[in-house]
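We emphasize that the prediction below concerns an isolated chain of 225 residues; any contacts that depend on oligomerization or on bound cofactors are therefore not represented. The input was used exactly as deposited, without trimming of termini.
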Amino acid sequence: MSCLKCLKYTMCVVNFIFFICGAAIFGLGIYLSTTTKYVSLFPSLSAVNLASTLYIVGIFVTCISFLGFLGALRENRCLLISFFLLMFLLMLAELAVACTLLIYEEQIDTLVQKELSMSISKIHNHTSDETIGDFVTIQKTFQCCGVNNSSDWKREQLPDSCCPSPPCKNTTAWPGCFKKLKDWFEKNLLSTGIGVVSICCIEVLGMCFSMTLFCHISKSGLGYK
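Result of the prediction step, given as a token string:
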């Protein structure tokens, strides 16, 4: 019985922490959407940008963690099984994404290049970063310019994020972003893999904890409280 109580309150604490993190991510998404005008990296999916991605992740994390927290605290079978099913579906989605990335790597590379070029065309009239697209944020972070090179902007006066100090010209611009992004991903592939495996382990533990509590409540004859 003491082990089950320990399991119950551990699940409560962990889910509460994730709830706070999810709320913080959601708040960051609201902040970005209200303070910055974003142009999506993928114009074909215009609703997909950094702010909207943070919205979705924040809402999803808060909802799942709330189910886990309340289900464990009140020992509610309905909430616990809902938490288990959502975690299971999340793991299936992650597996599907990983398989898609591995199988269609070349096609995805081509698609990303095309979408980044379209993103540039959406903001190419802006000579400064006052109206910021997600692509310009990438240029600042990775110190790069354009998709393949600075000529992708098709003008002499480049955005301020294209070089160490404005005004930016083709002669002073950083190299293209696509190769830098790909190199960064390959360089950090091990770290990314470890992070994904760690997340999966947390999800599996959450599923095990919720199912253990669910079975305990069923055996205790507490029913659907």
